[in-house]
């Protein structure tokens, strides 16, 4: 048993590549060791890539050994080890190291390595994001989506009505982003490119001072002359230059310098746009609707007063009733003049929107508004013209109906875009984490600071050295080249305690420096940064449609045509009933005839029906839900994950790094003899083998035991021998030291005392690993090592059980340790010694039994199970492969967030159901009332302008209902954990 326990890292298949309990999501590449700043400047752009087949790796501890061995070589930029596929990919600088040296290093660790000659297959798919202006309802988004899906080379297209954006996965060899934009524009909407997969490093610059075409050509030539520039695009109307570039060779400051030096100082360049693209667009849209609404009021209020108020004021009424030509009055002429600009200038957007929709053989909200307002306006025009040409015709106009209808709809759209803007506040808050400015340092050849300069943080280039003072934010991902401090990373990783940073440690952009001054060399800038990756993840999540949205899509397909039919039938029924005396003439108001009454009912039906509310019910709730999740440290990758999570009734937990901390620590020591320098001898023996997790735990404990964690020099260990799976031995201070399992001692003919046997038995019962230590052939002590439970693990399992969620543990560890941990946390069902594929099979087995399964894991070998599960949840401190495979990332690495994710999902879908009930109920109730269902019994009829206001209010109410999710609070049960002293972030 001890033999199995000793080989802790290689038997357990769920251990992470990084055993540190501190979250490191998203990962950042290490800077190449052995490369100084001066040397690095000589080898920019000379990096190479090599792919090796590595056989013999059995777990992530093996992968960690290979990775760390490679990274010790000079000139290594990055090394990624894939245990599942037995492959290792290395980015390196050939000036310092070559493929053969890397291969030999892998074999020195104990694995067989072969260089794969063919180049790593590049990803053929790219992602393009396009902003689409002019969409009003689900019918519009469906039209655009269908057009994009129909293009050859497009794998997937998602169009989000709430964000007014499209995300397209396409093959750039078959279709270009310009063709994608053209396809959108052909559907009748305006397309604005946000980003393409090929411009991860792309800078947009606005240049002032350009007066001639030759200036454009000269600037373009200057930009092309820079090393690393891959493409230059010019927009002459905006004086905008878009530059795609290689960030390891050049950057935005170089572009600005090149532009400004071209025109002898007359050109001035700055980043374009000056604000965030989405925010600028949203503000512009809000401004446009607000402006349109105010202008419509200028004309509509006089129309309303002349038709509804002044008619009851004797003196003014007399003036308005004055005849102009035949029966045409001053009041009618005034209303016609005032209503016309509202109908055709301010309301032009509804004409263009309906034209686009009808051209694409679909019908949207604009069609209903255009039909309703046109019916009222042109009937009024008919009445006015007939009055002007007839000496005895006395009719009633509906100019107030058309103008008030447009005004109220514009007010509704203004309030709607205002509310929709608040649904993406989470992304804005994330983006605000990045500081606006940074202090750029200029260093001399010896690394001394010779100049400091404050720059816009968007102008930071790779390999810049930045100064970070106490209390300021780190401006870019990078590594510390000078100084030491503590950095608060909670806003990115969820780690509550400030993390110590010193020379060589990595830092993440957007985190807060607390006490010391740091000099940081930038490694990932702009869209490559960790913060940008998280923002993109949240944006993609908000783009993704939840399956429940298909319900709204199906309804919206037939909604508008059905409403038009109902509206026509309503008008016809009331008109025929009036024509053939189907109701008393007393029902007809004195100011109109039966045709006009029927027309009002028909228009009311047409404008009260609201397809927008249905279309916004799901995406707005998903947007707010995923945003709230991000602020709580729960990254939800889209509507599918959000919808599946609320149905989860079974959770499969990995053990190491999930239920436990994932970092072995020494918990107790039993000395059989008095040895003053016991840990000195043991640590000196194990330090050679310190890549092994158990050896690392012993060495770390020995440092603390001696009280000098930073720079302790251990005695020399000679004749070191590592016996795989059993232990190590060496000569230290002329003493033969052996550290290992019972089998190592027995194979070396070293007797094990009864006290040691008893202590080993106790450690096994407590899920601990017992390590025997012998000096000169005599067992002198036993070290107990354990991977402790995470704080609150027992309470989380208890709460999940109370929620009627079945909890299961599936682990690659031995059964004894697994059962002990399971008993401690309260899990009854345990599957131990499971390989990665067996974990996935167990998940499928549970699904086949009718359960909705969530998998919570952190290791490379959890990836198949995370993918197989209905909802995969990756612990944020886990490996990047696990995070990539998961549907939900728990960035804080707290088990409590499993409950938060499920509860947030339930609250979000409760809100979606409420939205649907409101949107459908509104239409089912509103349409009959507008059609006059209450008129025969109560005399109540809904004027068209009131119906229009109600339609506008329905969309706003749905968005506001979704916005209530912003006030989401975690279950009170989790707050009680905090009260009881368990750390809950």
Helix-strand layout with pairing:
Elements: H1 2-6, H2 8-11, H3 37-42, E1 48-55, H4 60-71, E2 76-82, E3 87-92, H5 99-109, E4 112-116, E5 126-133, H6 138-149, E6 154-160, E7 165-170, H7 177-186, E8 190-195, E9 202-208, H8 213-224, E10 229-235, E11 240-245, H9 252-262, E12 268-271, H10 277-309, H11 314-320, E13 323-325, E14 328-329, H12 330-346, H13 348-359, H14 365-389, H15 399-423, H16 425-431, E15 437-443, E16 449-456, E17 465-468, E18 477-482, E19 485-488, E20 499-501, E21 506-507, E22 512-513, E23 518-524, H17 530-543, H18 549-579, H19 594-608, H20 611-631, E24 634-636, H21 639-645, E25 650-653, H22 655-659, E26 665-671, H23 678-686, H24 693-706, E27 717-723, E28 727-732, E29 735-740, H25 742-747, H26 754-765, E30 769-775, E31 778-786, H27 793-802, E32 806-810, H28 815-825, E33 829-831, H29 836-848, E34 853-857, H30 863-868, E35 871-875, H31 880-885, E36 888-890, H32 896-930, H33 935-938, H34 944-963, H35 972-979
Parallel strand pairs: 25-32, 25-34, 32-33, 34-35, 35-36
Antiparallel strand pairs: 1-3, 1-4, 2-3, 5-7, 5-8, 6-7, 9-11, 9-12, 10-11, 13-14, 15-16, 15-17, 17-23, 18-21, 18-23, 19-20, 19-22, 24-36, 26-31, 27-28, 28-29, 29-30, 30-31
